[in-house]
Amino acid sequence: MSKSKHYASRRTVLGLLAAAPAVLSSRVAFAEEPIKIGGIFPLTGGNSVFGNQNFQGVEAAIDLVNDRGGIKGRKIQLFKGDGNSPQAAISETNRLASREGVRIFTGSSTSAVGMVASQEAERNGAFYWEGMAVANNYTERDFKSVFRMGLSAAGLGQPAPLYAAEVIAPMLKIEPKNLKVAVIAEDSAFGVDVSKAAIDQAEKLGIKIGLRELYSAKSTDLSPLVLKLRSLDPDVIIATQFINDAILLQRQMKEMNYGPRAFVGTSAGHSTLSLAEAIGKDVNGIFSSSFPLEANVNSLSAEARADRDEFIKRYEAKYKVAPAVQESLGFVVGIALARDILAKAASDNAADLREASLKADVPVGSYINGWGLKFDDKGQNQRAVGSVIQWQGEKMVSVYPQANKVRDAIMVPLPAWNAR
């Protein structure tokens, strides 16, 4: 080898060695970059109660994962997007995608928000992990990177008539086929889809529906509806309502001294602490077909029991209140995304997250609410099931199904208003 070539070769090697620390440093810095997740929830406005509760649950899960070391050595950075309307949800999804570089999203508390936010995420080549929006057509849009861990409207509405037939009817000493049932709902996609699922399930059980009534959730007077209910005198009312109309109906039924023998809500307005804060002891005895509040600890894996204890401890320390349905749901959605999707995916791009989601096979009982994780080809979790809670002592307790049950139902038939 000539001297000139020898020196050139040495310069190349030395140059590469000198560059190596910079390359290594770059790789370390890349590995330590946070995984960015955008949470699109209604944080202000009429649905902010649910939005903030859901977000707080997701945040608790992400904080726990980060405190345990993150995902493959990387911390998760959670961004807020205030989807207080469909248009705001569109704007916030695009803002987080373009300005913050977010390529993973979760949400959404309401179907109106979830439908458009997930659409924008798909358009941006991002991944969307839905937990709370229940519209039946959410998973019917042939999107490739949108998955719903939570329930559909059908999954949320069906437990109400099942519980009425299996538990309430025997307590009332009435054959299920002889129950008089009224189904009422606010008229958004949420109310229409969930109430239809309840009606369809009731009819499969041979239960006749005596009244089907839709109304605007913005109504400020539901006394005409109360008069219709009084006229029918149903054994069971199944109601799909948001928080303001749920409070209004209970107050006006009390003012008009009317009450059914049993009242079953379907999540939303009947599965939030805000209901008890508004109507006090009048909440006692009300049921709600719901996302699970909790599970019987004997039905949970050891890991889920440890997660449950840690979540409750952390949430109570931070917010000075026990977590309820919406908060627990948010935690389950967040922990599943982090532990069972992000941690298993080859990378955090949408294609790899899709592949990890389709491969996910998490047994029932692996999350604090008793759920597991297994998606169909449309992106709907097949191991998410609804449950029934009842308000007892102004607190929600799980009463159905057996895997979630922690107490027996009480106050059937419902006592007079002054006896609750």
Automatic annotation (TrEMBL):
<comment type="similarity">
    <text>Belongs to the leucine-binding protein family.</text>
</comment>
<feature type="signal peptide">
    <location>
        <begin position="1"/>
        <end position="31"/>
    </location>
</feature>
<dbReference type="Pfam" id="PF13458">
    <property type="entry name" value="Peripla_BP_6"/>
</dbReference>
<feature type="domain" description="Leucine-binding protein">
    <location>
        <begin position="34"/>
        <end position="361"/>
    </location>
</feature>
<dbReference type="InterPro" id="IPR028081">
    <property type="entry name" value="Leu-bd"/>
</dbReference>
<keyword id="KW-0813">Transport</keyword>
<dbReference type="InterPro" id="IPR028082">
    <property type="entry name" value="Peripla_BP_I"/>
</dbReference>
<keyword id="KW-0029">Amino-acid transport</keyword>
<dbReference type="GO" id="GO:0006865">
    <property type="term" value="P:amino acid transport"/>
</dbReference>
<dbReference type="InterPro" id="IPR051010">
    <property type="entry name" value="BCAA_transport"/>
</dbReference>
<keyword id="KW-0675">Receptor</keyword>
<dbReference type="InterPro" id="IPR006311">
    <property type="entry name" value="TAT_signal"/>
</dbReference>
<keyword id="KW-0732">Signal</keyword>
<protein>
    <submittedName>
        <fullName>Extracellular ligand-binding receptor</fullName>
    </submittedName>
</protein>
